[in-house]
Structure formats: C-alpha cells, structure tokens
Design brief:
It is a single chain. The chain has a domain at 63-194: Four Helix Bundle (Hemerythrin (Met), subunit A) (Up-down Bundle), CATH 1.20.120.80. It is elongated and about 85 Å long. The protein has 5 helices and no strands. Helix 2 runs antiparallel to helix 3 (97-123) and helix 3 (97-123) packs antiparallel against helix 4 (132-164). The chain has 196 residues and is mainly alpha-helical.
Length: 196
C-alpha cells in the first residue's frame, strides 16, 4: 500500500549526469594510456642509464631542431582547440569551426612531418633492430603517432558534427581530452627521447 495517501508513488526524476558519459569514458582511457607511456618512459630510462655511450655512436642523430619546430605545430594545435573550447562553453558555436579546423590542420601536419622524419631516419640506418635507441624510438614515438592519428580522427568527427549543427558536449569533451593528452605527452617524449 502506498504511503502517499492512496496515490501511486511517482517515478524519481531522471538525474542529469555530473560528467558526460563520453567525456568520462575518455578520461578513464587517457589515465590508462598515461600509465602505458609512463611504463615506456621508465623502461627507456633504465635502458639509457645502463649504457656507457649515448646515443650509440653508429646510429644517426635524431633531428632535434626540426622536431622542435614540429613540436611548436602540435602545441599550436592544442592552443587552437582551447580557443574552440572557450567558444563552445560560452555558447558561440559559430566561432568554433575555424579554430577546430586549424587544430586539425596543425595536428595532421605534425603526424605527416613525423612520418617524413621516420623515412629519413630509416634511410640513415635507424631501425627497430639497429640498436636499443631504434627499438625504443619507434616503440615510444610510434605509440604516440598511433594515438595522434586516433585523436585526429575523433577531432575530425567532432568537426563534422559541428558543421552539421549537432555537436554534443559529450563528444566534444571526449575529443578535447584525447587531443590534449596527445599534445601534453609529446613534450615529455621529446625531452626524454630527443634531448638525450
């Protein structure tokens, strides 16, 4: 029997999610991937500390200056996405398309430039099996490139949804978190791998 004076109990009001589901899922994914990169960096540091001479004398030197320029392109991409973020949460979705397109363009440039760098290094003799430097370089930088490609795909999908007028906070938040993760991990990898 109902305790509301004979009236049937009312259904509880649906609760609004504190954090959008897509964003929450991406945050969990990024935390797990952060541990993956932390493990690779730790293994690299252990290997590096056991070497008498670094980098190996018979291996090509990594292109520090060119990659520094490419790092600036990636950071510029993150800045452009931050501008889109501010427009989104201020309700100015019409002002989002340009910075998102810039973020996509600079991100794509970064990946293509890294690919070109890899081709050059392979021609010069740095391969997965040429040395411990080569093995770790392609593992760590390649894993980052794989994440960058995935994040660019998600960002491109969010841009298409924005153009169609139905970009949700959940999708945009997930795309942002993934891209900011890619942008944030790169300077650490650059410092650990390139500046040794």
């Amino acid at each position: 029997m109902s305790t509301t004076g004979g009236r049937p109990p009312t259904a509880p009001e649906p609760r609004e999610a504190v954090i959008p589901h897509g964003l929450f899922g991406m945050l969990l994914f990024v935390m797990a991937e952060g541990m993956l990169f932390a493990g690779m960096i730790s293994a690299f540091e252990i290997m590096h500390s056991s070497q008498i001479v670094w980098p190996p004398p018979d291996q090509p030197r990594l292109p520090i200056e060119a990659t520094a320029f490419n790092t600036l392109m990636l950071l510029g991409s993150g800045l452009a996405l931050y501008v889109a973020h501010r427009a989104f949460y201020r309700g100015h979705r019409g002002k989002m398309l340009r910075p998102m397109t810039i973020a996509l363009g600079l991100g794509t440039f970064f990946v293509v430039f890294q690919g070109y760098e890899w081709v050059q290094l392979i021609r010069e003799g740095l391969t997965l099996t040429s040395s411990s430097l080569g093995g770790f370089f392609y593992l760590m930088i390649g894993m980052h490139a794989l994440h960058a490609v995935g994040a660019i795909g998600l960002l491109a999908y969010a841009t298409v949804r924005l153009r169609g007028g139905y970009l949700t906070p959940s999708l945009f938040g997930a795309a942002e978190v993934f891209w900011f993760f890619v942008v944030g991990v790169w300077p650490i990898l650059y410092g650990v791998v390139y500046l040794r």
